[in-house]
Backbone:
């Protein structure tokens, strides 16, 4: 996002407001303490696995790291259940935790071939590594998500997406895949061969088996112009639809307790490279955290201070290859809830979410992200059947996030939202069946491929209504 560099420097127990070369140091309410960490080894001597934000953990009985598909098939056939594939651990839901076998495909990475402009990619490949690999051939994925630390398999399993009114989520560009079932059977699937497996597996939460590789469409590795600017939140709301129609990629972040929004657009260009500067998002978050710590007791003062510090910030521009610009480093940990709403409901829901947070939760300081995603036809895709607009709410990893379930999820559900599979939500069973028209078809394919339920941990059993 955007920051007035040096405007506010915030620490865990204090803040320094800097203006005109002078500084006024004020002691502010400190952050909450570091959340207690689980033991690194449990009573049975099993090592801890923990997700990125720290909210999910497990002590797997076994960990597998196959080197190739044949080894993966052999390992799955004898693995102790529940078998759960894991990538970068960037999901906030309990998709990966297991007391059985955790399977990492980190050793199964890279591009293994091409069919025309379609790349054949092993699913252990991290998105951040895939960009330069494709660029070597003058190609690129059509879009990338907000962060690029995920494995390709994890991104497909949870329907990870970027933003762009005419651009689908990553799984929407998959044209074929190889699925290794928990019995060790290897299935090739595309729209002509095993089409039901293909439609179920493209977004499958790792519940059918382990996808070893995919064939995926690529585009020309074009240069993009990235433009970032702040404006009043009301203006961002009023102009959002036009901007989604105008720009190749557009998103914006409502910044609670400031009255402001940060906009980000990307458009193709032949302009010379203008490198992206050093990361300023972390500094921006530190500024917002400092305002929360210092002035969280008085919303009018907090808004006034934010506008004084941030509203004169200059826009930022960068020009470079898309894979270098579309994703952002996110070193500050958080927990997140994101729902995908019909486009006609997205901005109404966003405005209500911001109003609710500003009324009920002065501890929140993370910006709220709004994106737009094109439709696709994968059975468990949140974008199945029509374009969707996403709204994502974040909470600092040290802060309580239960308000998301109590205050925010009811808003999303009232506006016919579908949850992001890797982010916090409470929906399961019949609730999901009511909003996914091919839900039963997916469960039928899942039962056929894994009749003993070896891929199902307790969370997935509850999600699918199987408990």
Residues:
């Amino acid at each position: 996002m955007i920051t007035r560099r040096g405007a506010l420097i915030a620490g865990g127990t204090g803040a320094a407001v800097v203006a005109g070369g002078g500084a006024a140091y004020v002691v502010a309410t400190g952050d909450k303490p570091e959340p207690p960490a689980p033991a690194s080894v449990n009573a049975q001597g099993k090592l801890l696995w923990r997700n990125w934000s720290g909210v999910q953990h497990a002590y797997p009985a076994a960990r597998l790291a196959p080197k190739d598909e044949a080894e993966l098939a052999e390992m799955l056939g004898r693995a102790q259940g529940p078998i759960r594939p894991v990538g970068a651990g960037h999901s906030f839901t309990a998709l990966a935790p297991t007391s059985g076998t955790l399977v990492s495909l980190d050793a199964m990475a890279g591009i293994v071939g091409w069919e025309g402009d379609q790349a054949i990619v092993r699913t252990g490949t991290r998105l951040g590594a895939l960009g330069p690999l494709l660029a070597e051939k003058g190609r690129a994925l059509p879009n990338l998500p907000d962060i690029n630390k995920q494995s390709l398999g994890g991104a497909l399993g949870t329907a990870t997406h970027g933003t762009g009114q005419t651009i689908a989520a990553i799984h929407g560009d998959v044209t074929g895949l190889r699925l290794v079932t928990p019995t060790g059977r290897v299935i090739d699937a595309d729209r002509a061969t095993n089409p039901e497996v293909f439609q179920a597996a493209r977004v499958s939460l790792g519940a059918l088996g382990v996808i070893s590789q995919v064939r995926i469409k690529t585009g020309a590795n074009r240069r993009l112009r990235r433009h970032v600017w702040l404006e009043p939140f009301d203006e961002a709301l009023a102009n959002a639809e036009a901007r989604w129609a105008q720009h190749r990629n557009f998103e914006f972040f409502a910044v609670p307790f400031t009255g402001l929004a940060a906009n980000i657009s990307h458009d193709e260009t032949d302009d010379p490279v203008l490198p992206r500067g050093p990361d300023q998002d972390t500094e921006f978050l530190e500024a917002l955290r400092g305002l929360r710590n210092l002035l969280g007791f008085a919303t009018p003062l907090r808004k006034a201070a934010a506008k004084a510090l941030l509203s004169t910030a200059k826009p930022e521009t960068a020009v470079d290859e898309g894979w270098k610009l579309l994703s952002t480093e996110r070193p500050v940990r958080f927990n997140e809830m994101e729902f995908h709403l019909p486009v006609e409901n997205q901005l109404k829901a966003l405005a209500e979410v911001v109003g609710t947070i500003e009324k009920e939760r002065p501890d929140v300081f993370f910006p709220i992200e709004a994106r737009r995603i094109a439709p696709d036809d994968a059975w468990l895709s949140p974008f199945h059947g029509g374009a969707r607009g996403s709204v994502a709410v974040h909470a600092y990893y040290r802060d309580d996030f239960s308000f998301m379930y109590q205050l925010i999820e009811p808003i999303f559900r009232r506006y016919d939202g579908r949850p992001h599979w890797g982010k916090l939500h409470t929906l399961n069973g019949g609730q999901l069946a009511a909003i996914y028209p091919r839900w039963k078809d997916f469960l039928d394919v899942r039962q056929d491929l894994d009749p003993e339920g070896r891929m199902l941990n307790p969370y997935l059993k509850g999600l699918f209504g199987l408990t």
